[in-house]
Amino acid sequence: MDIDLPLIWAGLIAFSVLAYVVLDGFDLGVGILFPLFPEKHDRDVMMNSVAPVWDGNETWLVLGGGGLMAVFPLAYATVLPALYAPIIAMLLGLIFRGVAFEYRWRTRRGEFLWNWAFAGGSTLAAFAQGLALGALVQGIPVEDRAYAGGWWDWLTPFSIMTGLAIVVGYALLGATWLIMKTRGVLADSARTIALRCSFATVAAMGIVSLWTPFLEPVYLERWFGWPTAIFSVIVPLLVLGGLYLLLKGIRDRHDTQPFIAALGLFVLGYIGIGISFYPFIVPPSLTIWDAAAPDDSLAFLLVGALILVPIILAYTAYAYWVFRGKVDPEEGYH
Amino acid sequence: MFEAFDATLLARVQFAFTVSFHIIFPAFSIGLASYLAVLEALWLWKNDEVYLELFNFWKTIFAVAFGMGVVSGIVMSYQFGTNWSVFSDKAGPVIGPLMGYEVLTAFFLEAGFLGVMLFGLNRVGPRLHFLATVMVAFGTLISATWILAVNSWMQTPAGFSVNEAGQFVPDDWWAVIFNPSFPYRLVHMVLAAYLTTAFVVGACGAWHLLRNTAPRRARAMFSMAMWMAAIVAPVQIFAGDQHGLNTLEHQPAKVMAMEGHYQSHPDGAPLILFGIPNSAEKRVDYAIEIPKLSSLILKHSLDAPLAGLDTVPEELQPPVAIVFWSFRVMLLMGFSMLGLGLWSLWCRYRGTLHTNDRLHRIAVLMGPSGFVAVLAGWITTEVGRQPYTVYGHLLTADSISPIGAPAVGASLIAFIIVYFFVFGAGTFYILRLMARLPRDTLPELGEGPIRTAGVTPGPAQPHGGQHGH
Questions:
Q1: Domain span including residue A136
Q2: Is the N end or the C end of chain A the one with fewer CB atoms within 10 Å?
Q3: What is the four-CA torsion angle of B56, B59, B61, B65, rounded to 10 degrees?
Q4: Digit-coded pLDDT (tens) for B334-366
């Protein structure tokens, strides 16, 4: 029996990138919202709500990058040079916000510095990820197994739009996470912010979705040709449904529903991008099969992934379970 | 402003800079994670509060170091693609899956249980918490195993062939992972990590013994660290020697550079203790040498012939001076560690381990020796691999991304500024944490419940004045 290993791996990589986006999305979002909460007590609670899990969330990014090198080395080797500046910016942002988790508790005089590092780093990382996404969607030219475009190709009105969209979207995830994990005034402020971010996120999704099909003839055909046009009706309808659940959850002061609905919006947006992309991994140059490593490499890692990913999901779920419920402001080891 | 440099050189500097910073944190956290597991095991077993106090003390330091390791590690995992894309495309099918396994088996394990280890003692109870600590320690060791398999494969590649696209493709995964230098390199690195941690812990213990701040905890730390130094340092020197013999077999040019052998020695090579390598004249100036000793060490015979760099084409020779010096720095550190370990044994025998101020002062000075040795060792092995990225098969100059010097130069400057600022602050915080060991609390009755909870709320903490949130 012939197993299409590159296709399976495309699915797994897509899954780990999605896992990264929603998981680190909410903890980056908490950082993006930091400037809106000037009270030290609120900031401590916000930080503690993500402190036990942020490291695990970020590991999905390493799996996305490391996995891409392992199974689609040509995609890794052409996308990263093409996105050089946004990737470096993202890394620098992640450095600042990552160390802030510990440093913030180690100094009182320098605390403002690490508050800035957390907020600025999170926002920069989110914006850079959005830029990278936009640059990837608008296409990366490849010749002779190497990136063949210019050094500023990633910077366009479209990629700036996707950058802003990601920042707003992560802020929504962060706000709904805070609704779920905090109490009192802090949760109330989070509700107000989540309400505004809901509309902004769906508006940004709409703009990006309408813009995308005109970037590449392939996308246009995909979204408005038959039979794939079915999706272009269904996905927006589902997005509106998600928005409804989100707003209703916020209005009804429901704890978890807004977060779940916000996750749903991200998943739908992600599926939309997937519909545009398939079968490319580096549109419009490389398909999944062009970029795939030899089957030996794919099979070797697949064995481990099939065994280990369920185990990872299990103990990750356990770690979240251990820290379930509202954050106790008195808690933390600091 | 970077026209004078070529992109390859700048990319190499960037890699060397970021990896040198990065290696510091794993070297420390591999050893510290195991130390934490041992401390918690001792606490559970002996029910002695001193071990829990030590655990909580080092746990905080571990958290800071681990955070720095995570963020500097993410940089490494993307740098292969940004600066070394040709290498990534070609070597990805072989080393990519190994790095994928590192993430799947180690990173997630560490990250998943780190939260429980740091914040969860009062939520999961001591036994599950101990399991979390062991998992974190285990994760650091698995991570070291995979990353050294990758590095060793680049040094002594095996188990592959090359396809029509010029990619290395795996033939035999067993041979890829258990390539000729892997076992030596793994043992050498893990022991180095344990020694590094032992000397940091020892220095911290000695510092507090000198200041008499927390006699009981300081004694426990110092004694444990000195046992490690006395036992592991000689083992490490033996392991290093074996590693050297393995390198001579598979990467002779590297050993020639380490030893400063520009010329072949047909009847017995001398050991050059010190000197100044002069690559223009192909000799070591002002050399202090011991006749025949190099042959004795490397070939176990006084008159064994030893080939020199004159047998290697000029363009395939590694830079001699860097390798020559870094190797000597590593040896100096290693033998100093052995010296301190033996001295501590003598003091222990005399019953003066905890009272000999001179021993304690030297131990404080030796605190960073592990980091120096680790860095020097990596410089020796990585610079010694030049001019190849995949030894004998792929030149460094042919591994670089199609990218301009300005881009690499600008990102290099950004990394330098950010790293010195961020990791400088982290080092400062770690040193301050180490210096602030509170006085021993007397084991009073009725303290049990709070202690076993492990986490005391900020205001109740007797010593947490700095941030008391």
A1: 19-323
A2: N
A3: -170
A4: 999 999 999 998 988 888 888 888 999 999 999
